[in-house]
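User: Please look over both lines:
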Amino acid sequence: MQQAQVLILSEEHDIFQDLVGLLPEGATAMSHSPFVDLGDSVQLKDLALIVLVLPQQKTYQAIESLGRSWAAGVIPVIVVMHTPPSLSLVNALLPLHPLAILKYPFPAAQDRSRATQLFTHGLHVAERQSLKKNLAQVNERLNQRLQEINTLYTVGKSVIASLDSDEVLQRILGTALNLTRAEEGFILLKEEDKLYLRASKNMSEEFVQRFHREASDSIAWQVINSGRPAMLQRQTQIATGYLVRSLLYVPLQAPGRGEIGVLGVVNRKKSKAFTENQLFILSSIADFAAIALENARLFSAVAAEKFRLRAILEHAAEAILVTDAESRLLLWSHTAALLFDLPDEAVGHPLEEYIDNTGLLDLFAENGADEDQAGGEGEMSHAEVELEEDRIFNAQLTPIAEVGRVVIMQNITHLKELDRLKSEFVSTVSHDLRTPLTTVQGYIELLERVGPLTEMQQDFIQNALRSLRHITALISDLLDIGRIEAGYDLEMMPCRMDRVIKEAVETYLIPAEQAEIELSYDLPDYPLWVLGNARRLRQVIENLISNAIKYNEPKGWVRVRALRDNQHVIVRVEDNGLGIPLEEQPKIFERFYRVQAPETEDVHGTGLGLAIVRSVVQKHKGRIWLESAPGEGSTFAFVLNSYEDETEVPESL
């Protein structure tokens, strides 16, 4: 048993000493007169047992004195008296709820042992009562904590569920006042170097109006700058003419933005101090307030961004479609809605449910396949999409991480018509010029047979012939690219790309040797089947080899490589020649475009070779690209679909 205090109310010192000797080990005793008011002494409140020794005189007065004390009914009582109790005396003792009534003195050892047992029992009863009291207090505190946690949980749910920040902040302030038992509460927010009142509860209108203009609270600034709470228990001025008796401020911390303000509760009338537990509770509530304010800020930003996006889509001339990764419609422009007759309820539905254009659906399918091959990170795709009334749109599809895909469609019908007219004009003019130019070339070549010519005349004739050959080659290329774009002479059939490469390389072995260029190829030991036009594909290889030789230097090299990668055949024409500046590379496949540099002034060409190469590759549903750097050479590479039924192709092909 822990050390316990026993109060012996007795006027007789001898009896006190005798009773002390009967107390169990570990118990301490103190003496008081049975007629003295016990009061509210802290020392007396630690009592475990009271032993009342009734005097022979003024017996009832002693009973009444203890009955008026705070200890009556709270602390166990054992009564000791000199004579057997009468019925009236027992009735007088009942309000004290005595554990036992002992007759003193205790002459026999058995009587003294029984008295010790009663004292021990009384102390055990007191200990149990103390444990019950402590348990009740612990349960009360636990219930209070559970109530606080439930309240915080309710506030948390309201913060998440509601986007009305004013309503949420008022609820938060009400909870803060309820849990801290404060009189007034408010939220101050920092804007640049000033404080403004964002919300308040139970505060005077005058104070609210003053703080709406600007708050000059030095304690709030201290909390914001330090990031630590403030708790004061003294009369403090938090604003001009606004005095409080106690206050508790905690900082509002927004993720990634630091301290944005202060949540404060104050007492103006009562001087009761705030506790550490209330500080913890208010800090938790401040977190919810910061979340509510951050949600409001983000929601406002998202709403503004959504409004701007809607405005852009509403007024965009292009047809814009936005889908998720599974091609479900998310957003579209007003032009797209008119173009495909899209209703508002199409949001969230698959693209093919509302759009049946084959070209656009194929573009999505091809881009999705590219994403799968690239591990979910596809590249931008584009295609020409034909719609009703012979309208043609250029569609560009761009995958966007964590969003989906965006298609922008521009009406190029008039551009296609202009391109058709231009092509027809160029083809007609080229065809009409070819015959007279051939005739002129023939007559010039016959001039030497008519009669002797001077050396200067012969030079003039050679210059004229060179110019005629250049013009004739240009016309041939123009007619060639026109036929390619029109789809003429492009019969597709299975062919071996490795054989095409060998034939093209063998054709240029002598020109390469004359230019002192090492020309070679590197091919796998298996056939590279593609579905294409062998003559046009050879033209692609020859044009690339020709350029690699022309834009190289003596002792240089040109190498043609090819391989099969999954379902594709990749061909690369590499050289260590002059290279192409980065700023020139985007225009290198355009018609008539040639890189202007001192090193290429003496290189002759029509500027159509690479345009022909690109057209042929695109007609084969392939893709061509360039890798180059000045002084480090160039690599032109293109990829074609591998022919899947190659096992059924005769080897003679």
Summary: Residues 646-653 have pLDDT under 50 and may be disordered. Residues 317 and 335 are 6 Å apart (CA to CA). Residues 109-161 form the longest helix (53 residues). The longest strand covers residues 258-267.
